[in-house]
Amino acid sequence: MPSEPIVIVEGDITRQKVDAIVNAANTSLLGGGGVDGAIHDAAGPELLEECRALHGCHTGEAKITRGYRLAARWIIHTVGPVWRGGGTSEDELLANCYRQSLSLAVQNGVRSIAFPAISTGAYGFPLERATRIALREVRSFLEKDSTLKKVLFVCFDSHTRKCYERVLAESV
To answer: Of 12, 19, 36, 41, which one is the catalytic site residue?
Structure first.
């Protein structure tokens, strides 16, 4: 790989100019708080209509919709695990969120994608642990498939951004 396609920024995922953004959704896919609510608000009511037709999503899986009023053409909805102490397959479920999101992206011709810090908000997944899983899965995917040219991690605040930057620097 000539240059690192992984970029870490602090900001609003709904404003990213990429082919697809990833929504840290709940199992209903019908909107909620945090990133999920912000994406539904920014995309407009058509997103809710399309999500209703998907009939939800299981934890660790992903589904794709159009982006509607967003700059991104696609929204990939993935349901991260709720942290329950680490003994209920949370790490594997979170890793599956990234794997399935990346796979769906490539299947739909996506060349640039933006991820939030899945499961680290209301779902309580420890930030550094989630960051290590996210970066490991994205790097592993990029080693096997060069379709994606840019993978953005969009951090809601400076604490999250600094964690991503530190973990990324350690793994170079």
So the answer is: 36
Cβ within 8 Å of residue 39, ≥6 positions away? 13, 14, 21, 23, 47, 70, 75
Q: DSSP code of 116?
A: -
Tell me the pTM.
0.96
Residue 2 above 60 pLDDT? no
Is 36 a residue of the active site?
yes
Q: Give me the CATH number covering residue 37.
A: 3.40.220.10
Q: Which domain holds residue 59?
A: 6-170
d(CA 24, CA 34): 9
Q: Give the single-character DSSP code of 76.
A: E
Cα-Cα-Cα-Cα dihedral sign, residues 158, 164, 167, 171? negative
